[in-house]
Amino acid sequence: MRLISDCVFLMDRKMASHIVGYPRMGPKRELKFALESFWDGKSAAEDLKKVSADLRSSIWKQMSDAGIKYIPSNTFSYYDQMLDTTAMLGAVPSRYNWTGGEIEFSTYFSMARGNASVPAMEMTKWFDTNYHFIVPELGPDVNFSYASHKAVDEYKEAKALGVDTVPVLVGPVSYLLLSKPAKGVEKSFPLLSLLDKILPIYKEVIAELKAAGASFIQFDEPTLVLDLEAQKLEAFTKAYADLESSLSGLNVLVQTYFADVPAEAFKTLTALKGVTGFGFDLVRGTKTLDLIKSSFPSGKYLFAGVVDGRNIWANDLAASLALLQSLEGVVGKDKLVVSTSCSLLHTAVDLINETKLDDEIKSWLAFAAQKVVEVNALAKALSGAKDEAFFSANAAAQASRKSSPRVTNEAVQKASAALQGSDHRRATNVSARLDAQQKKLNLPILPTTTIGSFPQTVELRRVRREYKAKKISEEEYVAAITEEIKKVVELQEDLDIDVLVHGEPERNDMVEYFGEQLSGFAFTANGWVQSYGSRCVKPPIIYGDVSRPKAMTVFWSSKAQSMTKRPMKGMLTGPVTILNWSFVRNDQPRFETCYQIALAIKDEVEDLEKAGITVIQIDEAALREGLPLRKSEHAFYLNWAVHSFRITNVGIQDTTQIHTHMCYSNFNDIIHSIIDMDADVITIENSRSDEKLLSVFREGVKYGAGIGPGVYDIHSPRIPSAEEIADRVNKMLAVLDTNILWVNPDCGLKTRKYTEVKPALQNMVSAAKAIRTQLASAK
Ligand SMILES: *[C@@H]1O[C@H](CO)[C@@H](O)[C@H](O)[C@H]1NC(C)=O
Ligand SMILES: *[C@@H]1O[C@H](CO)[C@@H](O)[C@H](O)[C@H]1NC(C)=O
Ligand SMILES: *[C@@H]1O[C@H](CO)[C@@H](O)[C@H](O)[C@H]1NC(C)=O
Ligand SMILES: *[C@@H]1O[C@H](CO)[C@@H](O)[C@H](O)[C@H]1NC(C)=O
Ligand SMILES: *[C@@H]1O[C@H](CO)[C@@H](O)[C@H](O)[C@H]1NC(C)=O
Ligand SMILES: *[C@@H]1O[C@H](CO)[C@@H](O)[C@H](O)[C@H]1NC(C)=O
Asked: What reaction gets catalysed by this protein (predicted)?
């Protein structure tokens, strides 16, 4: 008897709650280690499958225990959900020699990672997240077939564990819109014309899911938040009309995320045939709220994504509940489902065993596991069973975050508020500054330099680790790092490089190094987020107003400068990059946090100048990466991002030379913003896409500052010859003035070996010298 009543109670507890998707890696990155061990041949496929099944089962159990009604399945992946869809459709590019049948690990992982005999498929960013997906390669000759039963298998697997799940599929239209024409297929090939070929496979999958007992199914169609033209929107109408009869008898959710859904797309979406529920990101998509209030179709389910899947902050439950109650008035009590704004894949996994954060900061946070509990608490509250204790604890945490002196620093708030709406530029223009700098630096034409880091040896990592763990003393640490810098300086002098770097042996990471020394940052032990495949990143958390208690780099930079007469670059990470590679506050606009970081970096720049450093590089690797999804928001972003960069160096003398470095070359569309950064010298990744970068100058854009397009690719172990490098430089000279061109590699040398770095730099310097001689004799 007891059992039965418990059961009934359990069912009643399942309020209308839904999770869009869940992280796969596990709380301790179990999947990462299982994958890498399998790839290294150290464990069997069965071991990998076992770890994965255990992770899935614990996730389902966790959501079920929390009381979630609509629990997703098929959001697990051995690598990526787009690649899983490619496998489901049998769309394996021919170079993998797949001959049909269910797709096995060997084919799947060769598509994902390549191997000694075949390259991987291309990977690109998943919308504006830091997750990367494997881009499908399609064309008229692809032989689609139902070749991976993963969605059905995972549904059955959960069911066998007693959990009835909502299987999640990447929707057919988003799948095609995110594909690219395969090699050899015309660039203009209409990918959407393949709908007719893939829908029959979707129908097979749907039929099998139905047969297995599924009653609810979710299609992720995130492309609906993009700026889509009418013909692309029509594809949604067509696809779901075609699927309608297969979907009959099922509840069907079409899920969007990452931004608001534009009005036209909203109209198309809510009119789709066969669809009974619509999911929206109500954290980033606040404009969607107006559309819902004015024109949400009656009788349909609204999946309201109020718990943010993109950050690590605890939800403001009282505010969310008020919003949900207002939506209840719009769509009806029994049609409202509480959900996450997107898959929780984009946040950290579980706060429970986090060891590096103190209790106060922890009380402000929620990782994926905690967000699941928040969703359920909101759903329960809506249904009248509000957990008062949980809500008041949450309210207390929200209040403590608002009033904590660790969050607010009035001086910083004032200083950053004063920056808004005004312009900050160095008083003298760049050509006059370059003249002043040249008088002081006296560099040859085509000056040579490197980007910053030198090879990081096992020994160096050991020294840093032991110092952190207090196993070696500060004196021992300083001696070891000093020794390393000396080596790097001597090497560069031997190579006859003109502007030197200290090699950054003291740094683990270009953001963490600064975050650890700034106020307002916290670091986790296990706050990992999947970036691609088994790769995870652990972004710092910016929780408070940012300031710089003391100089961060002056000690090492001046030590390095004292070892040489040549200019030694001070090396800093720029505000936009620090911002973009962190979890950012949600209680003030992004630009405000960025201005605060800019002010901290400005202090550092000025201290470096005072210490006699004449060349300072401020890297903005992420400037372009940070562009918002929607074009309409680009100008606003670029404006404050570029302004933040200028703030860092507005106060220095003309004779101090500011460099910046960018890790991409495809910046033709934002070239005017790059110029507006007003750096004295910019070094850019270039060698992997030569023509792209130079074409912008060929098309007549005037660039007066110094520029160093990378002359060789450091991502490859290959050593370029001097002739090859000279060729590249000559190509650049055809479009850029001799007196602004710099000669440097593409990127930092951290990941390379000295046996590769030495000859490559040697060839780079001799190429520069040969061209100098050539130019001198041509005069
Ligand atoms: C590389 O991948 C292909 C395609 O999956 C496979 O046939 C081949 O055996 C793999 N080669 C190696 C060395 O793993
Ligand atoms: C595919 O088959 C061709 C012809 O047998 C072979 O040359 C090639 O190496 C194979 N590719 C892979 C990735 O195994
Ligand atoms: C930086 O921000 C952009 C846009 O939001 C995003 O696409 C990118 O992945 C971010 N980078 C990191 C490392 O989070
Ligand atoms: C599709 O099948 C045909 C006939 O078997 C074959 O010629 C073609 O190469 C296949 N296409 C791809 C992309 O594998
Ligand atoms: C947290 O730590 C406890 C005690 O070591 C352990 O039993 C539990 O499984 C851990 N939870 C997670 C999610 O890692
Ligand atoms: C830059 O400033 C110098 C000195 O003030 C001036 O002579 C020159 O015309 C300016 N150049 C440009 C491009 O504005």
From this structure: 5-methyltetrahydropteroyltri-L-glutamate + L-homocysteine = tetrahydropteroyltri-L-glutamate + L-methionine
